[in-house]
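notes to self, project folder thing:

trying the whole complex as one job this time. last attempt i did each chain seperately and stitching them together was a nightmare. two parts in total, labels are on each line so i dont mix them up again. if this works i'll redo the older ones the same way
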Amino acid sequence: MMSSLPLLLPQLPPFLPLLIGSLAAIFLRGHLRSAIMLITPIWGAIQLSGMEHGLYWAFEFMGYQLEPVRVDKLSMVFGYLFHLAAFIAVVYALHLKDTVQHVAGLSYAASAVGAVFAGDLLTLFVFWELLALTSVFLVWARRTDRAYSAGLRYIMIKVLSGVLLLAGAIIFINETGSARFSDIGLEHDGILNLGAWLIFLAFGIKCAFPFLHTWLTDAYPEATPTGTIFLASFTTKVAVYALARGYAGTELLVWIGVTMACFPIFYAVIENDLRRVLAYSMINQVGFMVVGVGIGTSLALNGAVAHAFNDVIFKGLLMMTMGAVLHMTGKINGSELGGLYKSMPKTTLLCIIGAASISAFPLFSGFVSKSMIMSAAIAEGYDYIWLALLFAAAGVFHHAGIKIPYFAFFAHDSGIRTTEPPKNMLIAMGIAAVLCVIIGTFPAQTVYALLPWEVEYQPYDITHVLTQLQLLFFSALAFVWLNSKNMYPPELPSTNLDADWLYRKLAPSFVVPIYYSVIQGIGKLESAAKGGINQLINSSYDKDKEKPKGYFAKLWPTETMVFWVALLLVGILLLYYI
Amino acid sequence: MSKEQNKPDFFDKPENIAKIIKVFYVICAVLVIVDFIVHRHIYHDWENIPAFYAIYGFVGCVILVLIAKAMRKVLMKKEDYYDE
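result (full assembly):
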């Protein structure tokens, strides 16, 4: 039955069902809209399962072959993942009446699917820009001043990424004669290398490389409770896909990735906004994936893909539980929350499952994918990288595994009394939680079965389980000990400076004065020039007598001529003697 | 319902918290003891240190928190810092 079902459907580009869902959200209302929005991700996934590997709808454009849809194992994993993520996010947002969010959410998901199936660089660019343009509405839909300006900063950085991609793609296509998006790498000669670097940088912005990451920690926590679930699922994962496709085995990525895995955990410890804590932890998780892509062996790449798959689900789950807290209490700062387990016991349990998964507890999903990347790092002799990743793994447990549930649901009782979130939110969180446990317990039948590269890996042996438990329990011990000694930093209402300070404070502090002084300078110069010209005119024309004032203007032209000829002759005479 | 929520709960009683923490300490101790009994596979020389992962996890997290606390002195600003 299931295998014949895809054959009954008309074959469409993979992104189309989700796009149709978003169009339906514009025109339909009520239960019909909800039903269509729920059906489209399922329809899309079934359609995908019926697609053979290969190229579809290829055509010629300005002498280059464009391949708008390319189906292979790598694009397929991400295709399934994005349909699953879209389904969960739609369920989570089902109670909303806000059409903008429904339309933006589904068309954003459609763009992500389009991007991972894009076979050439130009198609990739189109979906790359659509990702930015559709997602920003999920930030703006919060309808606060902060969200509005965060959205503006977000879209500017995203458009910059798109422009870099286009510029790099044009150079690359022009130099190689092919528009196909496959392995690019960073080792080329001349102008081709510039193209490769531009594309790399474009991917790096969306992947939240260090110093290019601030759009994420700035905008995601300002989005709506439901919008953040969509945001957390797609953009960075498309970027990981693009790096895995174009730059697998680029050693620079190992170093970038390990930096991404390590620095955000410090910020996460002192951040007060719990959704921003999760945004930092997202960069940390993406860092693991980037390391995997950089190592570039089959095991490492599979680990990166598997971790992207799991991260969408467990990070989505954590974001959903915090979204539920925000939705029900209107608060999200750790300093204002606490003791919510009494009013939201189910949400608390779901949050703990998400926390266990991101911390990579055995039998939860993070364990089966993170350990692949760690094993690959040690197998390839990246000793210090491995050590740093181990530190990052302990740090994840500290801020995402303990801090999030502890400060929201336990800690001191904030006195807030509320109820569980709407049923659809609970169901969405429940689906994600069940998936975390199923994937963590039966990896071979679930996520491993989808992985693109052939390699045997067994996460469950005594060494892995024991060492991971030691690492996690003693990280927790550090938390307990620091808390008992009152050394753990309390949650404080604050803003922590990050790289966005450069363009939100530093640059304006001298660019704005420079701008105004330049404007002023130009104004002064202009008035001085005008004054000078006026003076010149006044001094050379007698208005009363209505004739010019100058000596030569009083003479006849012949008289003037005689004067100049005389002068010329004198000059020649003088030159003659010299 | 709200009355029920205001009753002192399982987690409100210090003796229950103390019990949980005791159990937690026992698990930590057991994990270290197991390290000496079970032969775990060694992929790297550093792993030969007894209870390497336990020590690394604990020390790593303490250092993480202490550095993060120190970072606050430089990085922490008022909540409306960017809105001014």
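what i see at first glance: Chain A touches chain B through 56 residues (CB under 8 Å).
need to look closer tmrw
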